[in-house]
Every structure is written in C-alpha cells, then in structure tokens.
Fold:
Amino acid sequence: MFTLIKNVHVVSPEDLGIQDLLICDEKIVKVAPKIEFSWDEDEFEVIDGKGRIAVPGFLDQHVHIIGGGGEDGFRSLITDVKMTDCIKSGVTTVVGLLGTDSTAKNVESLVAKARGLTEQGITAYCLTGAYNYPSPTLTGSVAKDVAFLPEVLGVKLAISDHRSSNVSKEELARLAMDVRKASLLAGKPGVIHMHTGKGKVGLKDVMAVVKETDVPIKHFRPTHCGNLFDDAIAFGKMGGYIDFTTGRDGEICANHVLKAMEEVDFSLISMSSDSNGSMPVWNEKREIIGMGVGKMTSLFGTVKVLVQNHGMPLEKAVSLITQNVAKALGLYPRKGCIAKGSDADLVLLDENLEIQTVYAKGRKMMFDRQIIVKDYYQYE
Structure:
C-alpha cells in the first residue's frame, strides 16, 4: 500500500517547510518538495496536506498500560489504556510499566498488554520490575526478562519515596550491572527507569553509583524530575537523561523544562505523561488526602503550552516527545523523526496545533479527528 501526502509542512522535527511524503506499507520512502508517483488505485491513496503540519508520532515512555493505582484500596485500581486512547493523543509508541501495585497487577499482564497494543497497530514496549526491590519479573530474573522478552527495554524501580524499597547504593549498582549486561546481549538500551519521589535521599545514591562504579550514566533514567528538581539538574549536568511528567498541569511541567534548559543539554530532556497512573496527594504524615489520574492528552498538551504560552518553536518543543525520547530509548531514527527509512508514524496538526490525523506504521488510524481503526472490543 502506498500513500502520498502532498503539500504538507514537515517538522521532522527539524523544520523542512512544505514537502511531499511518500509512504510504502510501514515505512517512509521519500521526503521531497515534489514527488511524482502513481500506482494501482486500489493500493494507492493521495492525501492533500495543505494547511497541515506533519510531525513525528509521539513517544510516551511512562504509561501504566494496564492501569496503576492501589494506594487507596482495591477501589483505587485504575483501568487499562486503550489503543484509541493513544491514537487520540498522537502517541504511536508507548512504553508500559507497573507502579505502586505489583500484587494485583504483574509483569505477565504488562507484557501481554504491550503485545496486544502492538497487534492493534501501534508500537508498544514495557519495563519489567515495579516500585519494589527485588524486582518482580516474568522469567524469574531481571536480566532474562531484558535479554529474552522483545518488549522489555529495562527495569522499573522506585527511589526516594515512602512507597519504595529503599534500595542501597550496592543493590542499585548490582541491578544496574545486571541490566547493562543483558542489554548488551539483546542490543537494547537497558534503562533503569526510576520513579523519583520527594524523599530525603533524592538522586544522591544514583549519582554516587555513577561516580564510584563503572556503570555508565546512560542506564539511569529518573522520571518525575520535578519532584527533586535541583538533584535532577545536577544529574543532567553529569550527562544523564532527565524526564519531566506532564501530569495534571502542563504549565508546571513547561516551567520545569524551560528552567532545566538553562543548565542541561536540551537533548537530554524529555517529557512523559504517567497516563493511567495514580497521582495521589499526601499530607505531611504520608496519609492520602486526594487522588488524581494521569492523562495521555497532557503529553502534547504541554508541548502546546510551550509553543503557545512561552514562544518555543514547535520543532524544539515536539522534540521533547519525539526525537529526544527515541534517541534515549535506542529507537532513533526508526522512531522520532520523519525521514526516508523511518517508520511511518505521523501526526498531522492544524494551524491551531490540534491533532487531526494520525498514522501508525503507515496505517491511517485517525483522519480529520475521526478514529478509523477501533479497539478490538469497540463495536459502535
């Protein structure tokens, strides 16, 4: 199947101006100012992209695809992510993970969900582990999960949080080395994706492991970095990736990003949504007094805040959820850009930066704000 999108403003995320895009099956095969091409009409579609902006499909690297929650009893367990939730948010690549609860929810269900999302047309990965340590796994070993399960890019862990296992520096270093060795074998990034709370230790143990051992800093990936902003900046200045959660208030996340850019290499900064994860509110006694839920729509919503409220160029703002993430996860240039040979993951925006059309691996999933490909159990 060939698709030709004509006269579209391409932000790849570099601004390429008005271009034509030719897609064959799952791949982009040509980007040029004018493409002359024809094919059997049953296997060829031409889309007029005039007035639209094409950006790469978004990567959301922190999503509770089977739902998070559990801090306020079984009633607080959150429902899973639907494929169409991702498409409506412009997300074509997602990384799933567990949260506080790894008792009612498990790695087996997480891997199954990732495979199901991929079967429905998007690209889905996941992380083994959860908040607790030793890490829950599918095979009985973090290293084996990373080495032998195609979906698993690394391990999830909670640090500096009253719900964490308070891992020692030595335990953290051993976990990191296990993940590193497995990632070398499997050709994966081998991330230790760390939920970072507001605890007293902060990122000090992580930075100590980097300084005192031979584990490369690239394996350590703190997220929710707004919780411990100063430590995150120190870590970023060491050359580590830092990730900010778009959460319930895009303006807060946008301000964190803007402030971080003053001291940290922009390519090391990213954003993720924490979609379908719990966002509990605690008092000073660590008692729960409120609950919210992460929304995937906040991901591009925060990009719009950066562009429309703070004047950041679209090509730079969208890099925070495309190119920067793809490079951090070892998926670039297959993901995170619009270029010859890349996966045909595309989001077409209107002049108000509203999501209009979404392609995932060359398949038209949403067109003119109407979902084309429905969820497996969506009949209406």
